[in-house]
Fold these 4 entries.
Entry 1:
Amino acid sequence: MPVENGSIELAGIVKSYDGVNRVVDGVNLKIADGSYCCFLGPSGCGKTTILRMIAGHEDPSDGEILIGGEQVVGLAPVERRTAMMFQSYALFPHLNVRDNIAFALRVRGISATERRKAADAMIEKVRMTELADRLPAQLSGGQQQRVALARAAITGPKVLLLDEPLSALDEQLRVQMRQELSRMQRDLGITFIHVTHTQLEAIAIADTVVVMEKGRIKQAGPARDVYDQPRDRYVAEFLGGQNVLSGRIERIEGDSAMISADEMRDVIVPLGPRRTVSAGDRVDFAVRRDDVDLVRPEIGAGRQRAKVPSRVRAIEYQGNFVKVMLDNIGSDELIAYVPDRIFYRDPFSIGDIVVAGWDQDKTRMLA
Amino acid sequence: MIELPQATLEADAIPVRRRRALPPSTGRRPWTFYVLATLFTLYVIGLYGPMVCIYILSFQDVRGGLVFPMRGTSLHWFVDLFTQVRTGDVKGAFSRSIRLAVVVTAITVVISFMAGLAFRRRFTGDSVVFYLMIGSLVAPGLVLGIGVGLICNVLGFEASWYTTALGAQLSWTLPFGVLVMFAVMARFNNAWEEAARDLGATAWQTIYLVIIPVLAPGLVAVGLFGFTLSYDEFTRTLLTAGSLNTLPLEIWSMTLNVTSPSLYALGTVTTLISFLIIGICLGTIARIQKRRAAGPAAH
């Protein structure tokens, strides 16, 4: 029965090549039809293996893969209605743009005139009409990516799998092609699964971000949730933009914990969903770098604010904000992103004594 | 007058360099160029000089001898080569050599291609298989030829150019073909094959629509290697060709009993054939690449 819907369900997926080390270690995930999902993680975390198992280029050692409600393990890629865009695009070097795009039609035995018509329509969709007779070697990285996209999309797949699609491009083009991918996904209205190790890329385009580590999912959810409310230290550090601090709970007061370390005293952190901790535990918590503000010691801060006296260690101008690196708390970095307009009203210099402060309700206890 | 102290200040700040890393270009080449150019010229003369002597002397007229000076110019010895019985069976040897080389080429290309496909991934014992293949290159050709002859004797085959000599030549061309194929395969991206599969191609479609066209220039190179190695093979063929000679064997026997410039004429003809074949192969590779560059027409 052909797959008619691009929803994906992974149930207990395990992949091991040697029977001992699990590259993918029990992954459960549901991806809605027509959504844009990013697998994010460092190299070797199993994200590409998951993609290849969905594509049908590898079989899971255990578990089930359902596409559109159909069990697809053991089926060929074509029967799954998936198409893959390979990391370096894998365009056929001996075929021009049109023949590359028409390849899938050619192997299905569709007549030359018909496949030319279909290919030309697809070429127009990716705006490559003038370059239809070029060979892949004569195209730029961005053009190659469009051809790869068109080649994958011509069979009308329900799921498009993209393996590090932007890693071969330079920075400026990457941002541009990111938008193009987003546009194509909306145009085609199919599920896109995109594998990347770049946090910014993932949160910029994905509806759902899946953060992975060592073959397991650490957190999955809408981009904003994952960035703003990381579940644990790993996710917070991998997505960046957070100060991840660690300390000892002095006491619990209602819904909040008073946390101290050598460099900070009695920082109040809401317990949130973590209610099992008690006084004396060591815990991690996070506060976004742009929620930290810096004042000189003589100026008092308002109530309901955490205050950590510190010293400016380094300053980096980043354009719209200034990255101010403060003395570490234990082994954890403490960094403030100060909007550049505010910073230059009364700029700090290296070695200045400052008080880093933030609203207590902006902090988040980590698992 | 105001600029002056400014200038001295700059000069103080940046110490004057006594010598540049490279002398300024005056348009003259360094002396090393002439030394190396001379060396290369001597090399080319050493490489082609002897052959050119043979070619020149083959165009003498009927009074011609085996040494310089040149006596007249004509195509007499070429005619003599193909008409005189006393010079041996040149025509027959030539046709045998070509036919043998074509068969050897075909087998070498097919088997090297398959070996190249097999070695895309590692498998148990792959290095053993590889070294076994390469090992026959170091075996002395003459000894190997004797061995092939012995085995055929034991098995009751009669040695002939199209059986035993074919086998002996393959022991020489296959390892080379496989080595060239490995170099060709090193530039093959396995993702192309996977992409073809992803797009719905069967295993056979992947081979003839992707793998063979992508590797075509390399396969022509393997074929060229196989052909020239076979066409030129002597030591392994000497004891395995049976009663009828291949061309190199014929030339060798002629050096023993023919004392006319027709021997040189034979050298010129065989060289021309070799160049013709190399030219056809290189032309084919160039055409494949040019057609790719221009973009294929409807097919």
Entry 2:
Amino acid sequence: MPTKPNEQKMEEWLVEQLTGLMDFEERSLGNSGDIKMIYLRSLTDSDTVKRFIVVPSYEMDVQEYENYIFSFPGSEKTKDRQQVMEFVMKGYIFIRIKDSSYLFDAMKIEFSGISSSITEAIVQGPNDALTENIEINVNLIRRRYQSKQLRIEPLTIGNVSQTTVVVMYDDSRVDRDVLQEMRKRLSEISVDILQSAGELEKFISERKYRIFPTTVVTERPDRVVFNLAAGKVAVLMNTVGYAVIAPSVFNDFFTAMDDKIQLPLVGWFMKLIRYIGLFLTVTLPAFYVAFTSYNPEILKIQITLLIAGSRAAVPYPSFIEVVLMLLMMEFLIEASLRLPKAIGPTATTVGGLILGQAATQAGLVSNIMIIIVSAVAISNFVIPLNMMAFTVRVLKYYLIFFAATFGLIGIVVSTVGIVMYLSGMRSFGKPYLEIFPKRAYQGKGDKQHG
Amino acid sequence: MRKWLYLWLVILLGTMSLLLTGCQFKDVDRRAFVLAFGIDSVQKEEQGGQGREEGEEGEGKGKDKGKGKHSIEVSLKLAIPEGDPTKRNQEAIVISQISSSIPEAVRLLKSKVDKELDFSHCKTLLFGEAYARNNISEMTDWMVRRRDIQLIAYNGVARPTAKEVLDVHPKSERVPAYYLILSLGKEGTESPFIVSTFSYNLRRHLTEQGLDPVLPLVEKAGEDTLLINKAVLLDNQRVRAELTPDEARMFNLLTQRGLRTSFNVEMDGNIYSYNMESNWSKFKLVKSNKGKMVVQYTVGGRATLEDNTDAIEMTGRILRAVSKAASEQWEKDIKQFLVKVHGTGVDPFGWGLRYSAMSWNNATELEEWKRIYPELEFSVKADVQVRYSGMIR
């Protein structure tokens, strides 16, 4: 079978496919007319095109030029139409030299530089956050994990977005079952667009409707490395500055990277503080409802009388008061999140000070309620990982409902319900509420590589 | 589609049901908290007071005479909640009702307030003296059975009447009736003269065989002062004897460890006073060689010398002499006290309980104890060690 018509046909096919795209370019090169290049302007680096493809084509003969092009790392000789299409869409340049087709890597990559971590800020310790470029992310992790056992498996997800996803693990430490499960779940994903770690997290988790996150989503390369060393699997995506780590236990969401840095006692204390914060933020509003409406005998006399007195002007039952105030707080948080940075403080001033003060003075809510709402809001933010912090924000309404219907018993039973639900959860086959999880890898003295 | 409609219906109904609070849902501001409870007996017209015992001058008030069936008066001290914590005093009101039974009185009292009566913070229950001298079993029974009264409440006998004691608003009191809780529960003052009794203990000791309850006596000492330094001994339903402040302290000394108090001892015409740092006491039941049962008390403690009237220079010899004198004083006083308690025929220390715990003849031990009790003899051995803090000249 003569190759020439085939190559000609491939070129024609490609042109046919790409015609109509705004940034489609088709050029003949050199004096011989034997060289033709096809590419998409927006995806390629114009400087590379000019310096390494256009200019040399006039300086050497066709044979030399063919060798020259093929000598670049990343250049490929191909006959596969599908591959050609895929690579052109990625930013490769299709070059036909006489009878053969080449793909030349001239990808233009726009990304934000390595910035410091925002959503998981810590006091001391490394500040780098993952970027939106996978090459750099792999570099960030490789640099911190210099082991030949670190395996990196690339794959592509998303029929349209064609997102590059990378599975990373330490071959000597990883839990094989988890790895198998991860590969299986990733291969089963079938979506058009994949552009955030949260989506990926949703696709690879066990249940569709669930309230607790089963995989850690982090933007810190040091957390990724820490978990890789513990034998976990990390999934990174191109165009996303977050990594998904599996399997995860409940306790992982209350671990800040500070804990390793702090002195042991201080670290434990910080962790204890976080769990107390969790307890307070979930139960405080529910306790308020239960104490004011069902079980005032539990409190001391002074507090009971104080609540009774400050509630005297409040016309609505306690749980409406609580829900009203908590909703106000949610609006405040949501508003200060979405507002442009410059007018952000306005929201806190208006909402926090004026609203809180005015609401008590108008007798819509009691003084104690304001204290509780602020305590709830503050203690919510001690949870280091955002996914969990959002979960906890929702969880307290569930407790309020049961406190409003059954009082203290309702709180006890619904707390037991939460614990039972957590006990039943699995993260990639591993028990989620394992308090002292056995590490997949038990190293000598648990020293970190690198 | 249908599924979603059903889901929405459930959510809608759920939300709406939350808005219908119903009548069982009472917020804290719709409850009137009873902080102290008092009960008095009211003189019956027919009997004209002849069935009464001493100490009832203040009761009755005369105005309710003629309603023969009424026999008790229930008084409640209610708090009026004040939301502003910077305000100094919480106000309180006292309401009372004469009726034939306690539940009936409480029902009637409900129409005297605008809120639901809530007994869950009622931590003091007082018996008027006349009531306590008659029979307190109805009241204790009601108190134990009523579910919202916490049994960690404190009990006491009020003189002259519970109502009058509740009506006193001491100046130092910031929360209504908190004076009684702080002092009866020793949460505030740790006066050695206050005998405190939880209501669960009162009830148990009333029904226990071989152990009788003791209650503190709360006296109205003026317009806005209360005095709690005496105690009363009860048998299984009524007050049988009253203890003076010194005896109340002696009672505490024999039943508590680490009582904070001080004593005086006279030696060579000089009065030494010493402050107790620790104390202990135990008793044994021993058969004497005459065949009588002897209650052998061994008490002791460590104390520091606080002052002496003649400014004598302390030496080890003098301290040993003071310790010896103090021990002898204790032996004398305690024995005298025990004999007095024994003479009233009640058993607040649980000698009878100890006896039945020690003997195996379950069927007859109580009768035996009834036979033994009047013949009981006492011996006390005290060991007080007085120390001195030292001095730099």
Entry 3:
Amino acid sequence: MSAMISMSGLHKSYKNKQVLNDVNLTLGAGQILGLVGPNGAGKTTCLQALLGLTSYEGDIDVLGYNPSKSREKMLADVAYIADVAVLPKWIKVDQALTYMQGVHPNFNRQKAEAFLAKTNIPTTAKVKTLSKGMVTQLHLALILAVDAKILILDEPTLGLDILTRRQFYSHLLEDFYDADKCIIVTTHQIEEIEHILTDAAFIRDGKIVLDQSVDDIRSRFKLVAVDNEHLEQAKTYNPLFTNSMMGITSMLFDNADPATLATLGKVSAPTLADIFVGMMTQETNL
Amino acid sequence: MTVHWNGDTPIYIQLYQQVIQRILDGHIKEGEALPSVRKVAAEYQLNPVTISKAYQMLQDEQYVEKQRGKGLFVILGAPHSILEKERASFVSTEWPLILQKISRLKLSVEELPHTTKEHQ
């Protein structure tokens, strides 16, 4: 599998603050990467560098293009949704389609119209009269119609209700995604998309602290409900995270021997959110 | 519909088991089509690869077959072969555990309800 996106040795600082610190990420066809991190960890800066929207040190290659030098060519095959509210309020839906037709070489108007026909968005409506969920769907219609190879989503479902969030990902999977495309998505609602992702990267203070396939992450981390008699022994295996509740202590282990863990208590598979919380909390303790 | 997946078994195995169960219960009938990978991915909010893996297992077990350009269909006789296999696996793996539990609880056969109706 050849890489569609590769970032290596990415650095960026604003004044004295380092926002990206040696970020390396590679993404190939078929991958859906969740980029997860606390507020201010560098997710958006990372995506903006990828899109050529901000300066950076290091190397980025997107479909063979250098985003800071050949941004326009690159954008023929790369689509981006940032926290939805970027469409001008005064534009009408059909005007937005006409505009896209004018500026984007791959824009297929029929495709956008076919998608919009499945929604309850009138083509004569102005953006300001649409609900937030409808605006998201309009964005999706535009993206589907350019048939991008790479889709970059920065908090695409922020502020949307759960129904619209689900609808967004359903359309993404049904109408956009296939094995030749790749998607990067940042979100705080990691539990809602963890089964959609093929890969996850955790970022903290501008550094990537975990970057693996979701399958590998699942086999690497284990949650153990440790009973009191094994507590001291369990602590010696350096749990990432410990939480005591009603006589049972849950501990998160990284790369521990499964047979040993089984002697400590009931072993289960943590969710990505569990691992995220565990890793982020552990980093603070250091 | 969101399905509550159990964290300890890979989702593709749980999906495979769900399809098997639905064929067995007659919700999906012989000769009927399975929904497309895309459809299931969108509906269950799963990565399409997960669904492909489950569908591949169903094909390997010869419960479903691919019809060119049309998708996957439940093979005639699949409910029967699933029933045979599930019975065998119940007798060899689950039943011994139930027997063990019955004896651990010192229950006699007479004390056990004969049907689930009686039990209600």
Entry 4:
Amino acid sequence: MINRIFIGFVCCLCCGFVRAQDDSLQVHKEAIRERTNQIQGLRNGFYTLPALRPYLYKHAATPVKISYLNEQKELYNPQLGKGNQGFTIATSSYQNNIFKDYTVWGEAYYANYKAKEVRFNETSDYDLVFPYVTSDSVGGDLSTEKYHFSGGIARTMGSWTLAAEGGYKANLSHRKVDPRPSNNSSDLELAFGASYAVSPKYLLSGNIGFRYYKQRNTLKFVSVLGRPPVVYLNGMGSFNNLLSGFSDTNDAILYELIGPEASLSFVPKKNLGWFAHVGYKQYTGYRVLLASRDHSNDWTDTYMNGRFGYSGENYGFNYGFLGSLDLQTKKGREGLFSNYGHEIGLQKISEVSTYRYYNYHYRLDLFFGQKNWSIKPYASYNPFKEQYLSPFREQMIEKINLGIKGQFMQELKAGLLGLSLNLEKENVLKKAATFGSLKQVSGLGDLLHQQYQYLSAEPFNLTAEGRYDFIVSDQIRPYVSFEAQKSWAANRRFYCLNIGLVF
Amino acid sequence: MKNLKVLKWFLLSVVFISLSGCMKDEFLDSKSDLLVVIDKSNLAGEYTLSNVKIVLQESNSNETSELSVSAPFESVSSTIAYGTYTATLEGDITMAAAAGDKTIKVKAVKQGIVVDGPEVNFTLELFASDPSANFVFEEIFFTGTLTPEGEKYNGDKYFILHNNSMDTLYADGLFIAQSDFLTITKREYTPDVMAEAVTSNQIFMVPGEGQDHPVLPGERFIIANNAINHKEYNTSSLDLSAADLEIELIGSINVDNPAVPNAINVSGNLLMHNQGHKAYVMGRFAPGQDAEAFKNENAYTYSYETQLGTTKSFDTYKIPNSYIIDAVNISVQTGYAWNVTAATLDSGWSFVGKQQSDEERYGKSIIRKKAGNLENGKPLLQDTDNSTDDFTPGAAASLIK
């Protein structure tokens, strides 16, 4: 069913907008440039809010691509796996010229991949529900299908722009050998915004949004013998002794996440000038396990971000800077239960605050260049801390990343070639870890040490990207692209090949 | 100008976000003030406590914490994280006795302690626990009774065995023996094996396949001479029809109650000496050793020289001390000569009669003293391997109502 919906949605995006394309070669190249130029990419980040979408691109386009990706790494977080291997079909459309004063956009993708050697995590969408995942020491490859649809519309009325956007994601994951998780998640996002031209040059935009996420998962075993212990982690290898050990039932473990988003942006209408943005998101989530229908865990996940930058142009040179900060703070509580004197089973008696997660990023990008080339040196500072109370466990890492990315674009007779190279070195400024009182459940101590080793690695990363857009006919404008990455120290190898058409 | 103002606000916001991104959130205080009250009402007699510790195990996290309790061992306080706890107390208790102190364990357990508020109080009820505890003689009623007419009545004697441990024990295979030697007459027996064995040719054994006669912790196992209601024949006697076992006496005085299993006579017919000039031992044969094998391997001939200079010899059995789990020497208060067991088995002795042929002895027995309560509230009896300390002499037989 979800496949048919996806195919229908992609057809709508492609067919509906094909007739409206401006078909000159030069315009096509401009449309590609404004989507792939790295300096433009920094600016574009400000215009993805619904009420600023009319100012995102000058030219409409609808790219469709199919991608194959493969990743392999030797130093990794076991809960996320050794890398993904699979393919995606994706499309997006941006139309600002179909109806006067209206801008519409949409995106859809289908991803089908295998997350390799995932251990201590039988739950999907780790980034949303961590550290509250179902864990066993066996794990294995996890087959995953993801669907995503989103779209929005904005209307400009004089100095005002009003906009709305909605999106839906689904994630279906399973494994066909023991242990056999079956995870289904739905993720719904809605956003509304307004922008106002505070001057002929600048816009002020406010956007609010709402997210509702739900996951249902089961874990079954076919083999009666040799089942590993199943525990429900509460963070940093800890788990509730009373709640763990239940598996292979028809009941499901449930997750729910809900929360608002809000942001305020100050941007120039035409990409040049000062940029500023502040944003705030806070999600509250909970988990319900099999042993009790009371919440076993509740958490709040808070994201704050700020951007401030300037983009200028003189004598054909583009230059500027962008400072950004992204602060994620997660605070988790876990239920305490009693199994004495209650005929109905476990009874929740209290909840305690036990988990803290801080992941902060401060980054400065400088950029300069001309139409066909650009250089972007950057530095980032990433303090990270994760704590669990009773028994006290903590890992703390402060990292600094230094990098430089160069991009070269060359117009050829029949198309546009883009190449880029990014060199980055990660360095640890400070690190410390305390893993007290680890329980004798196989591998959880190894998990913590492996995660710490991964987080405190100091790899040198090399990323190369290339893209060639060309025109076969007025309606057939294909492109091919690749991305390859090699990380030393983590021994990570990643590549992605894309073949697409731009309508 | 207007644009610059807006920018300033944004910059201020970014600075605010940056400052608010502090990694120092405190965990909420989820701890309680704990007061543990220690109830010692189950302990009896003179004792001292030492090395008392309480282990608190939280059920959710399985984490444990430990509290040390110090004199006067009334209470202990601490702070404790929220959760559901099991508190286990363990320590040493040294019981005073004339023959020397005996140290065993003192324990207490409380489960399902819910800690979810600012204060939590609970009481731990101490009980004594002897890790080496086994069956002991609780009572030996060897004197018999008198009829209203003043006639001696012998069929109503009994032993009461007591499970002094916290495990269910099985009486199957237990033997009880009456010593050959008298505690009122000291002789030089040749060969002298008293240091390593008890000499007896009156031995009976509890039948069973191993688990036919379970005795729960703190419970009794009654062995009657004749397991009948003796009140039907002697109103001054007692009802032993509910006994767990009856001894097969010599035919002339044996009355069988088919409802009560009979003991297996290993050697002779054990008829308790009605003045208590003997020792009684209880034990188990070596693993795999049956009664015949015991007799074959432990046949013993002893002799002694009489005052007239003649030598008397007797064939009997020697029961190795290693087989014996409890021993009681009984004598007469003014006639005691010696113990007929090794001091390692019993370093004291008890009595009923104050002198030889004491006419006041009937209806009285020796009863082991109570040292406290077991975990299940049943009695823990004193067992210091010194019958002088451990028994109340000349007590009224407990089964006579």
